[in-house]
Amino acid sequence: MHILNFSPAYSIYTIPATPHKHRGPHKQQGMASLAGRSSTRHSKIPEFLVAPIGQPMPAVGLGTASHPFVEEEARAAVLTALELGYRHIDTAALYASERVVGEAMAEAVRCGIVASREDLFVTSKVWCTQCHPQLVLPSLKESLQNLQMEYVDLYLIHWPMAVKPSKPHFPMKREDIVPMDLRGVWQAMEECHQLGLAKMIGVSNFTTKKLQELLAIAKIPPAVNQVELNPTWQQKKLIEFCKDRSIQVAAYSPLGGQRIPKMNPVRQSDVLGEIGRARGKSAAQISLRWIYEQGTNMVVKSLKREGLKENIEIFDWELSDGDRLKIGQIPQRKLITVQNLLCPEGISSVDISDVDVLEM
Question: Which of 57, 93, 157, 284 is deepest in the core (most CB within 10 A)?
């Protein structure tokens, strides 16, 4: 099964562009059309311009990480999201969702929900077990085979950590952690771009320290850093650092994640709930709108049509200065740490403390 034909990847970039700062969806779409995209392309969802050529990246995408992973639920969610106007689908080697994502996108093209592959934005990621210079390119090729695509729009290093080669899995054994050859791994990422297999390359879960290490050796700087980000973990220092270096920040867990569903810090936030009630919006919508106003992309997971629809109804209104001030005072708590990825027992011979530095 193939998704039509594919156009060549964009030419190599040398420095990432400043993220597009317009807040209004119409202005962002206008800029996207200047970059060679149709002005009617998913009109509900604005885009930020990433990299010097200004590649459009939708402000909201659908996340497909789920444990346990249920294929039919994921396929239905992707098709529903595309029908509603989503065009960015976020996947990864670890999620086991790449094949389902590819099949759903192929079906959407066949059925006319989406005109062509060129109207889609696909992100995938290389897992820690493949974060070795000789395994990055083969891992991307395997992802592309699963996706039934000739390229991804964005390819990310999932975590700044390497584990002994094996199939992507978690939790991982602490004793399997090995020193990461960041230079070699990033050179392999650059090769993925140069071969046209990834239009943009970037990272995920990188702190400012890890980004500094990478920028010191990169010929092609990372275009995107995808990190945990929401009103209860605002990442102000990291956002400012990335903005100064023209790295686009993308948020995962924008609604607080699913690790502690009975006490979700975003959905159950008194501050966000109060602001939402005053505006006739949900706490989730207040969170997503706040993230959007930071100039940040986001990937948000929902399996139900109502949730998928609600998550993109955030572009025709704004928060007030008072709202932003209240949100800025919310107590901060990071939920996703490298410890979540590891078996509790065992000892690592590699110091990974700098992977989980808490940057306020």
Answer: 157
Active site residue 292: no
Domain range spanning residue 296?
A: 51-340
Structure tokens at 225: 């850093």
Q: For residue 151, tell me if it sits in a domain.
A: yes
Among 13, 86, 95, 155, the active-site one is: 95
More confident residue, 352 or 3: 352
Domain count within the chain = 1
User: Would you say 153 and 199 are in contact if contact means Cβ atoms under 8 Å apart?
Assistant: yes
Provide the greatest CA pair distance for the chain: 54
The count of residues in the chain is 360
> Which residues are CB-contacts of 240 (< 8 A; sequence separation ≥ 6)?
none
The residue whose two tokens read 């929401």 is 230
Q: Which of 70-93 are b and which e, b meaning 16 or more Cβ less than 10 Å from the residue's Cβ? A: eeeebbbbbbbbbebbbbbbbbbb
| Alpha-carbon distances of 22 from 19, 42, 181, 221, 352, rounded to whole Å | 9, 17, 38, 23, 38
Q: So what's the pLDDT on residue 359?
A: 82
Domain membership of residue 28 (yes or no) is no
Nearest C-alpha neighbor of 257 from the set 57, 61, 63: 63
Indicate whether 135 belongs to any domain: yes
pLDDT, tens digit (0-9, with 9 covering 90-100), for 305-322 = 999 999 999 999 999 999
Nearest to 59 by CA among 302, 306, 290: 290
State how far the Cα of 255 lies from the Cα of 356, in Å rounded to an integer: 21
Angle at 204 between CA 24 and CA 97, to 5 degrees: 90
- CATH number of domain containing 208: 3.20.20.100
348 inside domain: no
- Specify the pTM: 0.88
Bigger pLDDT: 25 or 189?
Answer: 189
